[in-house]
Amino acid sequence: MAGGGAAPPRRPLSLAEVEPGSENERFGVARDSMLRNPLILKAELGKPQRNCYTLPGFDFSYGLYIHRTDGGVPEAIGHWNTVKPRTALVQKMPRDFITMNRGALKAGYTTAHEFNLYYKAKDIRRKDDEYNRLKCPPKVPADLTYGISTRPCTPFFDLLQHRYKELWMEQQRALTAAQRVEKKKKGKVCETRTTFLRKHPLPAKEESFWHLPRLEKVGPHLSTFPDRDARKKAFSASH
Question: pTM of the entire structure?
Fold first, then answer.
């Protein structure tokens, strides 16, 4: 096939177009269905692939044709099909039951039957601006930006100076100081006898030899020392 690009598929092959000695020549009983089966149809040398689908004739017009309005180019140039504007329908506003109930109470009505009679006598409707305010969406400013806002630029000067590290350390120092102050405010824990004895243990008792109870408080009857100084001197030499 000549040319660099692929050509579109051609129309289906018919028996009248099959030439003797060609690739799709059939011997014996030949049917048109043989030439419309892509598994049986052979490719022609130097020609694009044929389309095996059954297509209408050359006089067939594709697309939708409207008999009443489709007049071709003369119809489009000579006539303008315009749509007539629709008359705005007057919308019946809903009842304003708040105002009617207030008026019925001021008039002295209390029962449901009296309220229904008041509704029929005074049919009060909502105002147009109040109804549209509840129904229509709120007005959005013209310069409003939808979506996620753009993240600000990274402050490289603060990064180079380790500014965020200094701020974090200051916050940690302030947090530690606050925890200490709070710990002091809680007050000291009341001490028990056990904790007091752990800090201030009792003095150990001196060991003494066993004596008869009747002889413990008996004073000496005989003193062989001339005075007290001699007695102390003698005891200090022996001990």
Answer: 0.23
Burial class (CB in 10 A: 0-12, 13-18, 19+), 192: exposed
What is the 3-state secondary structure of the chain?
Answer: CCCCCCCCCECCCCHHHCCCCCCCCCCCCCCHHHHHCCCCCCCCCCCCCECCCCCCCCCCCCCCCCCCCCCHHHHHHHCCCCCCCCCCCCCCCCECHHHHHHHHHHHCCCCHHHHHHHHHHCCCECCHHHHHHHHCCCCCCCCCCCCCCCCCCCCHHHHHCCHHHHHHHHHHHHHHHHHHHHHHHCCCCCCCHHHHHHHCCCCCCCCCCCCCHHHCCCCCCCCCCCCHHHHHHHHHHHC
112 neighbors 104 (Cβ within 8 angstroms): no
Q: Residue 191 carries which side chain, given as an amino acid letter? A: E
Tell me the pLDDT tens digit for each residue of 87-112: 767 777 888 888 999 999 999 998 99
Residue 131 phi/psi, 5-degree rounding, is -70, -40
Q: How far is the C-alpha of 49 from the C-alpha of 101, rounded, in Å?
A: 82
Q: Assess whether pLDDT exceeds 90 at residue 70.
A: no
Task: Say which residues have a Cβ less than 8 Å from residue 231's Cβ, sequence separation at least 6.
Answer: 223, 225
Residue 174's Cβ-count burial label (10 Å; 0-12, 13-18, 19+) is: exposed
pLDDT tens figures, 177-217: 998 888 887 766 778 888 888 888 888 877 777 777 777 77
* Amino acid in the structure at residue 131: Y
